[in-house]
Structures are given as C-alpha cells and as structure tokens.
Amino acid sequence: MVMTVEVLAGLAFMFSTSILLQILACALYSNWWPMLSALMYVVVPMPCLFFGGGSTSFLTSRESNGWINGAKFLTGFSAIGSIAIPAILHHANLIEAGAMWIAFTSFFVLVCTVLCYHRANLDEDW
C-alpha cells in the first residue's frame, strides 16, 4: 500500500510536534534532564525492528513464540519508561511540574503518531 502525501505530511507534522515539545520541555525550564525520556523514543521501536521484522502487526497478534513475547515485553517496558522517566525526575526535584507535563504531552503526541501510522498501514481505504 502506498500512503498518500497528505497522510505522510500529517505523520511528519505530528512527529515534529512531539520532538518540538520534548525540546521545549527542556529549553523553557533551562534544564535538560527531560531529554532522558527522548532516549526511550529511540528504544521503543527496537523490538519491532529486531524481533518483528519491522512490522507492528505482531504486537496485536496472539502468537506465543518466545521471541515475540520478549519483543512485546521490551516494547511495553520502553513505553512505560517514557512515562516513568519524567515522573521520577519530577519526584526527585530535578525537573519542574511544567516540564513533566510537557514531556507527557510529547509522549502522547508520539503515541498518536505511531497509532495513526499503524492504522494507515493496516487500512487500504485510509
């Protein structure tokens, strides 16, 4: 399936917005600790690339292969880490509440981008 230009432009805009929010969480408060959660953005797709063949379809399957179960665990662990890192940094008083909420918003936009990409790949009539 070939995605249309509008869908690709929308996904690129959403991804850019997520990265901009992550940078703003750091720059507005002159504290670069929230950038640690951006490291998890790199780690989240790695199980899909290594164990799923680059496809996200294994995440919704009921297959019980050991590698697939490991990939599902690592994907979930990385996704929860993206939420936990700003919360832990705020609890340790390393970042302010505003930076934490901006980082949460950045993660929410990134998750929406991934879900839209997944849906665009599954649907023929997007």
From TrEMBL:
Q: Where in the cell is it found?
A: Membrane
Give any Pfam family that matches.
Vps55
Where would one find the signal peptide in this protein? none
- Organism the protein comes from: Rhynchospora pubera
Cellular component GO terms, alphabetical: endosome; membrane
The record's section on InterPro entries has:
Vps55/LEPROT (IPR007262)
Annotated membrane topology: Multi-pass membrane protein
Spans through the membrane: 7-32, 38-61, 73-92, 98-117
Q: Which family does it belong to?
A: Belongs to the OB-RGRP/VPS55 family.
| Name of this protein | Vacuolar protein sorting 55 (VPS55) family protein
Q: Which residues form a coiled coil?
A: none
Q: Name one GO biological process term.
A: late endosome to vacuole transport via multivesicular body sorting pathway
Record's keyword terms, sorted: Membrane, Transmembrane, Transmembrane helix
